[in-house]
Amino acid sequence: MKSEVNMSGESFTLTRVFDAPRPDVFRWWAEAEKLQQWSGCKEATTCEVVMDFRVGGSFTQKMQISVQGRKCEFSFVGAYEEIIVPERISYRADLGRGATMVTIDFFDLGDQPKLC
C-alpha cells in the first residue's frame, strides 16, 4: 500500500488504497478499540482513544511516546462535524497549538477502497 502526499497552500492531502472492503476500513476509524490499534506515530508505545462517534460527539486520543529514551505523553481532542457511513468522516482536531479541520473520504473501488 503506497501513500501519495500532496500539499497545496494550507491544504495537505494523503491518499492511500487499502486491501480490504470499504465498510471494514471505515470501521477502523469509527470504533475506538480498532482506531487505537493502528493510530499514533511510529514512536508511540501505547495509544488510548475515547470517542463518542456521532455528529457533535467528541474524542480524545492519548499516546505514550518514547523518543531518545525519554517518555512523554501527547494528546489531542476533537469533535465530529460530519459522518456519512461508510463514505466520509470530518472532524475538527485541537492539537494544542491550534485547531485544524480533517476530512477523510472513503471512495469505493470494489475490494480496495481509496482514502483521501
Description of the molecule:
The chain is mainly β. The protein has a single domain (13-108), classed as Alpha-D-Glucose-1,6-Bisphosphate, Chain A, domain 4 (2-Layer Sandwich), CATH 3.30.530.20. It contains 2 helices and 8 strands; from the N terminus they run E-E-H-H-E-E-E-E-E-E. The chain has an 8-stranded antiparallel sheet with strand order 1-2-8-7-6-5-4-3. A hairpin with a 6-residue loop joins strand 7 (99-107) and strand 8 (114-115). It is globular.
Number of strands: 8
What is the domain total for the residues?
Answer: 1
**End-to-end span in angstroms?**
14 Å
Mean of all residue-level pLDDT scores: 91
Under CATH at level 1, the class stands as Alpha Beta
Backbone structural class: mainly beta
- Low-confidence stretches at least 5 residues in length (pLDDT < 50)? none
Largest beta-sheet characterization? 8 strands, antiparallel
- Bin the strand percentage: over 45%
**From N to C, what is the helix and strand string?**
EEHHEEEEEE
The oligomeric state is single chain
Helix content: 10-25%
